[in-house]
Give the backbone structure.
Amino acid sequence: KAGVTQTPRYLIKTRGQQVTLSCSPISGHRSVSWYQQTPGQGLQFLFEYFSETQRNKGNFPGRFSGRQFSNSRSEMNVSTLELGDSALYLCASSSGTGLTDTQYFGPGTRLTVL
Amino acid sequence: EDQVTQSPEALRLQEGESSSLNCSYTVSGLRGLFWYRQDPGKGPEFLFTLYSAGEEKEKERLKATLTKKESFLHITAPKPEDSATYLCAVSNGATNKLIFGTGTLLAVQP
């Protein structure tokens, strides 16, 4: 089974721009979660989508948004980029049918904001 | 507030020198505790899920155990390829959100 894929792998943007990241989950998985990883804060939960609906949301500003398509693929958007948004953005997929599902992570998208 | 603390922050071992990593947690109703391994520049790789106190799971040189307050990841006779950051996370079951510790950076020298 193919794993979770994320595109692009690397991005360089400047402050004020916006960016869209993409995630394709493991086949059959309906839940996609997004996390931000930084050296200072570690891994922090952004949001989770299940069946095209945002099911949970972390404590991030409204500049961070996402969506999920009918094929379970998900996109995450960050508008008005700030220097502090530089991070590794990780997508994780799970079956979504239970609250203790194991989440499988993709390789991440490294975003650098200049 | 749900919280996960991992110790030590960094650990250097000689090849073959066994040791343990600690993950202590405070969570309102533990539904699952997860161990992941992360190599530099890559996403976390799933290792184990533990659901209840007393549970143990093994995989090659790794063994994870769980009590009501903490989990241990025991590494027996480690090899250099075991060098990585080991992350612990918990789920409280109210959501699918994972709460992560800051990880233990393990370096195994030949």
In short: The longest strand of chain B covers residues 19-26. The interface with chain A takes residues 31-32, 34, 36, 41-46, 49, 51, 87, 89, 91, 93-103 of chain B (CB under 8 Å).
